[in-house]
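Fill-in record for UDP-N-acetylmuramoyl-tripeptide--D-alanyl-D-alanine ligase.
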Amino acid sequence: MSLWTSKDATAATGGETTAKWAATGVSIDTRTIQAGDLFVALKADRDGHDFVAMALEKGAAAALVTHCPDGVAQDAPLLIVPDVLAALEALGQAARARTKARVLAITGSVGKTSAKEMARTVLGRQRKTHAAEASYNNHWGVPLTLARMPADTDFAVIEIGMSNPGEIAPLSRMAKPHVAMITTVAAAHLEAFDDISGIAREKASIVDGLTSGGVAVLNADTETSAVLQNYASKREAKQVLFGQMSRTWRLNHVALSEGQTLVQAETPAGPLLFKLSTAGRHFAMNGLGILAACDALGADPVQAAIDLGHWAPPAGRGTHELITTDPANEGESLVLLDDAFNANPTSLTAALEVLASYSPRDNVGRVVKGRRIAILGDMLELGPDETAMHADIAKDPSIASLHLIHCAGPRMRHLYDALPEDQRGIWAQTAAELAVGPAALVDAGDVVLVKGSKGSKVSLVVDAIRKLGHPDTV
């Protein structure tokens, strides 16, 4: 079944097509393109026009371009437009207009991708659901996600992010959500804002795109919740609050234990108990928010609560792996918590609490006594107070339960210096240097958290630890 015909795409974009064609998908990357996709030749680090010939060779149905590139036949199936990104946006808007799907848009400083995946998991078990496979939440990711949406979609989940002021509202207006959820507001991208209230106002602008009668699902516990609620009130959006401070979707109790989270909550339908197959108080909050969003969308929140147990975090966002260091010896393994995709003080506090909830195992490694170990890379884009923010992690209540903390990067040096000497592991200028000797960082029996901003490249340490043995995702 075609997603776009040349006729429909031409009508949506106002472009000119060189041939009749029908596409079953939309792609911007020749590395992952599938036969039958419409290839969109965006300009980023490289000009997508340079890859049109390759895309067509791989079976692309057509290419969205501003001109016929060198090496491409004049009669090749092309949709020619003045501006490729603007045409992609037009495709996204046309896809949104032709569907009767109920749309959920999600933003937040922490947890928006995990929340999007939770929503995909639970809604997809009720009706036909569309969501991006990856974290496509920016100026090209949102229209691409919309352009890929089949017309017969029942539920759509759109993740919306930002790096600078003014980015969220236009993307929300493009998505036209029935429900907009804000996971939380935290110190992230502070370089582009005066303070955290500015971040809150930017996140709150997701309600600007709500359809008539739309619902804003807001975190009641974040310190800037009043900013979010005031913004939504001025836009006359219906509000649903979730968290410990909420009267309707109230988080009553969270218990973390060895890679699981048990949650007790109060909902408009009465008490509710649900379990997540990964540990994290922040995941419990997101899960409750998703249940509130499901209810606002018209889905069954009780069934969604049952199905939350099928969700697992995406790679690099809190996954739990068992690394078998020596298959010949029973029990010679360590637990790896891979949270290396992103970091700010709020998400790091949540991750440290998860690490503290684990029990290491004794008498299985060289060190004999199992340890809780954190390997931390720099937190980026925190603004002028970044030095203090890194050093203050030493005061986190979970730090006391950790045995060793390794640090990578000039910013994390401030945490390293603030730690008691007996908790200091190895500090290196870069994550690459730290990754050279993983056996010196960890041992069998340990529970190991690796976390840092993506730009810190602390994922290199994750890869090095994996190579110590044979990983089994738990």
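KEY FINDING: Residues 281-297 form the longest helix (17 residues).
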